[in-house]
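Subject: Sanity check before I submit

Could someone independently write out the structure tokens for this chain? I want to compare against mine line by line before I put it in a report. The sequence has 441 residues.
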Amino acid sequence: MSKRVLIIGAGPSGLLLAHYLLARQQKYQVDIYERRNDPRTISISRSRTFPVALNDRGMNALKGIPGLKEAVIDVSVQMRGSVIHEPNGKQRKILRAKPLYTLDRTELTKVLLDSLEQRYSCNEHQQSQNRLNIYFQHSCTQIDLKRNQATFSRLDSAESESTVTYDLIIGADGAKSTVRKHFLDTELFELEQKYIDNDYKSIHLPSTVSEKFQIALERDCIHSWRLDDGSVILLLYQSDGKMSGVIHFPRDKSQVTELKTAAEVKQFFEQNAPAVGQLMNESEAAAFLDKPVANVLTIKCNRYHYHDSALLIGDAAHAVSPSLGQGCNSALEDAVIFNRLLDEYQDNLQSALEQFTASRLTDARAVVELSNYTLPLAKSLFVEFILRQRIAKIMHRLFPQRFFPPLFDALYESSIPYGKIGEKYQGWCSRVKKSSVADYS
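---
Independent answer below. Compare away.
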């Protein structure tokens, strides 16, 4: 008999894990519950979506499902390097050994959803006949972990709540996970939540990018501008030719929060990132002003499972700062790792869940630390970091067996565990952690 799996959250990690579970013949029936609307049927607010960069970890996780990697590549842009724009107008280009694939997070979600529905029929009115059912606008309001029951409220109607019994419930519902909240009532579960010192706003520019700017802002590079107060502007192309990105800025010491008018927004970007300022029209400047300031909550847990019936993955288990672009990659990696454990333990959920915590804990904690404390706000430390990375690149190229690869190359390689990278950069992260905004040179 198929085991019934409830996946809470229809983000990339939950959807990819649904692919893997349903590919295991008739062993699992999967019901996905998402409190938001189907992103394919509504216009998504541009203040809520953002670009993600998939490296080898994320792409290898997709590769496990036939055709999925290719479908994602079709809506992605390859990034072969990064361009750092200096205040004096000069540019410093850093090439990558392997390309990143960048796309809007919502587009990634759509690809995963389309592929699921193409492979497995899903119709909530014929639930008993389908191995996959997807319920949008359903909020998980209560979970009884001891009785294996979850209660949902349908947000698009006045119908009463419904309660569902499961064999396994998976929390793929983000940094503020409802599933994880119920872990707090279980024995010896520890949770550390921390808002990082940087907030962010997304940036969206018009689709009309002149040939002049296409030359100045190369299509296959991620462009960045760093301000004296520690703010960082990141900008890249999407597959439709538009440019989007984000500005990260210190919560308590930033010019961004002091901007009051669209004219001030435009002037700010013209002074600090001239290409962005010249591309941004009046309506985009006004839209930027109106966008809410977003906080980043990071998560550390001491385990990711409860007995043989509950699991946390992705941001619900280990939400990270976006500074190194590892949030989506590590979340997708969770799905493929759990699938491998199901193979190894022949679908024994008790063993697979226990081993997921045992095998993933060190890596997950390391990626949180690396993301939070690798890139310093202090200008002097940032310059030192760039120099260290240049030296590491040269030494690794000359003596690959003796010298560890530079950070971003190591993060790209799925063969190098996050835990090993964390060990190599432990001292550096400690230095960055001790530094403060007041240390700017």
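---
OP: Matches mine. For the report I'm noting this point. The two ends are 65 Å apart (CA to CA).
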